[in-house]
Specification:
The chain has helices at 13-19, 42-55, 87-103, 119-129, 149-158, 168-179, 189-198, 220-224, 234-237, 251-274, 277-285, and strands at 23-28, 61-62, 108-113, 137-142. With 289 residues, the chain is α/β, with parallel strands linked by helices.
């Protein structure tokens, strides 16, 4: 079944909503530098393609990508290609999109957030919604970085056959990275794999190793003292917009990572889709409004 809002005809729209049990997914990302080897749209490329792949396992409606998430860097020194909108614009846009989704009968809206920088304002947005009468439940699920650590743990628990896409050399590499606690976070092995699985021509592994993906620890003393600055000092600690040890990747690891991730998100979609408690809680909270 076609699950993408944009690819569904008006005639078939109601059938999609019914098959989705009134559940709609909004993929969310941003436009920012991801090291030298990944495209500016890494987060939304991953979130959008994973949302669609997961919706083919567990039917839910997938709304058009919310591309312009929060990148609070509008300085002249911002990396080329960065797109920054005001927080007020982001919140207003998301609120009006949710209202339009709800107008079409969707009662549960779930953001699949592919950009860690969105997490704080999405929490504030959820709090803002609580002050208004509405017909829908709003929730967020984060794009977890499953490679290599979660995948390695699955191999150790269930055996290498859990990833038939991989060779013994690939399995050994993931286990090696897991044992060495490879750093993940931004333009890491996991994000590299997800983009390589769907847009391999946009991945440039030959650019790895030119800029460091390790922390400079410049702002650590503030966090240690319990003081929180913008992005908790991430931009200062990682000036190359890259958080991750240099890594190897290939098409097999990319496909295995993408499949594993899509299956995990399908499980989350199923939980949210079948849940009735959240609707009852909303109704109870809005009694007498």
């Amino acid at each position: 079944m076609e699950t993408r809002w944009l690819y569904t005809t008006s005639e078939n729209f109601h059938a999609l909503r019914e098959a989705s049990n009134d559940t709609c997914i909004i993929p969310m990302g941003c436009v920012e530098k991801h090291g030298l080897h990944l495209p500016l749209g890494t987060d939304i490329i991953a979130a959008g393609t994973l949302a669609y792949a997961a919706s083919q396992i567990e039917t839910v409606c997938v709304f058009p990508d919310f591309i312009f998430g929060d990148v609070p860097d509008n300085s002249p020194n911002a990396p080329a290609g960065t797109v920054t909108l005001s927080l007020e614009t982001e919140m207003l846009l998301l609120e009006e999109l949710c209202e339009q989704i709800a107008r079409h009968g969707y009662k549960k809206i779930l953001v699949l957030n592919g950009h860690g920088g969105n997490s704080h304002w999405l929490a504030a947005f959820s709090r803002k919604l609580a002050t208004k009468k509405r017909s829908f439940v709003f929730a967020v699920t984060e794009l977890d970085l499953f490679a290599p650590h979660d995948m390695a743990e699955a191999i150790l628990k269930e055996g290498p056959e859990v990833f038939p896409e991989l060779t013994k050399e690939d399995i050994d590499l993931l286990l090696k990275y897991h044992e060495e606690r490879l750093v993940v976070g931004h333009a890491c092995l996991s994000e590299t794999s997800l983009v390589m699985a769907v847009a391999p021509d946009s991945v440039h592994l030959d650019r790895l190793g030119i800029e460091s993906g390790l922390s400079l620890h410049k702002a650590d003393y503030l966090a240690k003292a319990g003081i929180h600055i913008k992005d908790n000092g991430w931009g200062v600690n990682y000036p190359n917009a890259y958080t991750g040890g240099d890594h190897e990747c290939n098409e097999r690891i990319a496909k295995a990572t993408f499949r594993f991730s899509a299956e995990k998100f399908a499980e989350r979609f199923k939980v949210f889709k079948e849940d009735t408690n959240v609707l009852e809680w909303l109704e109870e909270a809005q009694k007498g409004w």
